[in-house]
Amino acid sequence: MNKVMSLEEICGIIRPADGKIMDEVWKRWDNKCIPLRSLGWLQESLVRIAGVQGSIRPEIDRKLTFVMAADNGVVDEGVSQSDYHVTTQVVENMMHHKATIMLMSEQADSDVLVVDMGMKEKVEGVLDMSLMRGTANMAEGPAMRRETAVKAIEAGAFLAMRKAGEGYRLFATGEMGIGNTTSSSAVLAVLSGEPVSVVTGRGAGLSGEGLERKIKTVEKAIHVNKPDPSDPLDVLSKVGGLDIAGLTGVFLGAAAAKVPVVIDGFIASVAALLAWKLCPDAVDGMIASHCSEEPGAAKALELLGLKPVIFGDFHLGEGSGAVLLFPMLDQVFHLYRKLPSFEEGKIETYLPLK
Fold first, then answer.
1. What is the chain's Cα-based Rg?
2. CB 3.0-4.6 Å disulfide test: which of 136, 153, 228, 340 passes with 345?
3. C-alpha neighbours within 13 Å on the C-beta side of residue 51
4. Cα–Cα distance between 87 and 89 in angstroms, integer?
């Protein structure tokens, strides 16, 4: 995959998961020597992955987490404890394998690709796909131009499709960018119709006063920009972020390449929601890992119709919750390959309850 496809072309080749494959995988599961459907969500996830990959023998042996890094101009409004310097420092730590996501990925036998989607400062060794050095302050006007949002989505999709071509069979979505929970709250408030106060949280640790300022800033941004809820690109460009745009592209590019994607937390869930709005069939390849402590996370997953498996009050970001799911998926894939049938295990076949 050496060509950047247009957003229209990408959405045009996305297809739903293969229902016949999924039915066949369920039949195989139901003949395995365990109580029927007794691993619930894990079995469902394997079936979904099989349907996306189009194979009764799905594989997730090669995994990759995309960490999309970008800065948000809205931090000028005092919506975060930190500024863009922290984005730079954390990304530098990633490149030196000192950040959380790098250590967790090492333990989970997964690779990581850190991408500069729009950081204010460049970091050596980071893949630079930036279109601007941080978004504008959305409280004063659009965060970016519509065409910039589209190009950022296309860049994320290009990377996902290229990495699929290199043999990766499972992706996860991570991010790094001070102020991105503010942008995510704004996008979600518009797309969901929920009050800003309901979908806005403390992010990396705001005080009560800071949270009130953040809520008012999001409300102001929506009032100033008047994003159209029926137009995901209008919403993204006016009150979104470049990391969100890049992640949206990852979801779409992965769906086009038939690679499932594990959603991390709040920011990734909002990006998944945008991808679904742009191409509804893309949701078939999305797997929810955890429900972030950010109040909007549950709403985003609810709108997607996805059920997370981990409830740990996490709000770290970087893709950490998604990578935490990898070992659980490895376990169920191992069982699918190795468990004997009822006949082989010399156990009477379980019959479905009526």
1. 20
2. 340
3. 23
4. 6
Cα separation, 262 vs 58, in Å, equals 15
How many whole angstroms separate alpha carbon 77 and alpha carbon 138? 10
Residue 267 within any structural domain of the chain: yes
> What does DSSP say about strands 261-263 and 170-176: parallel, antiparallel, or unpaired?
parallel
Three-state SS at 134: coil
Distance separating alpha carbons of residues 73 and 351, to the nearest angstrom: 59
Q: Is the pLDDT of residue 77 over 90?
A: yes
Which is higher by pLDDT, 3 or 96?
96
Indicate the number of domains in the chain: 1
Which residues is 49 bridged to in the sheet?
none
pLDDT at 315 over 60: yes
Token output for 181: 């929970």
CA atoms within 13 A on the CB side of 195: 4
List the end-to-end C-alpha distance of the chain, in Å, as a whole number. Answer: 49
| pLDDT over threshold 80, residue 2 | no
Using CB atoms within 10 Å of the CB of residue 101, give its burial: 0 to 12 exposed, 13 to 18 middle, 19+ buried.
buried
Confidence band of 201 (pLDDT split at 50, 70, 90): confident
Q: In terms of pLDDT, which residue wins out, 163 or 3?
A: 163
Q: In this structure, is residue 188 part of a structural domain?
A: yes
Q: Residue 231's domain is classified under what CATH number? A: 3.40.50.10210
Whether the CB-CB separation of 286 and 261 falls below 8 Å is answered with yes
Asked if residue 93 belongs to a domain, the reply is yes
- Torsions phi, psi for 350 (to 5 deg): -70, 140
142-158 tens-digit pLDDT:
999 999 999 999 999 99
Stated pTM of the model? 0.95
Residue 126 included in any domain: yes
The helix (H) or strand (E) run that includes residue 52 is: helix 40-53
Q: What percent of the chain has pLDDT over 70?
A: 95
Give the residue from 129, 53, 67, 76 showing the smallest Cα distance to 104. 67
Residue 320, CA atoms < 13 Å, CB-side half-sphere? 14
The two tokens of residue 349 are 């076949």
State the catalytic residues.
318
pLDDT at 353 over 60: no
* Residue span of the structural domain in which 167 resides: 63-327
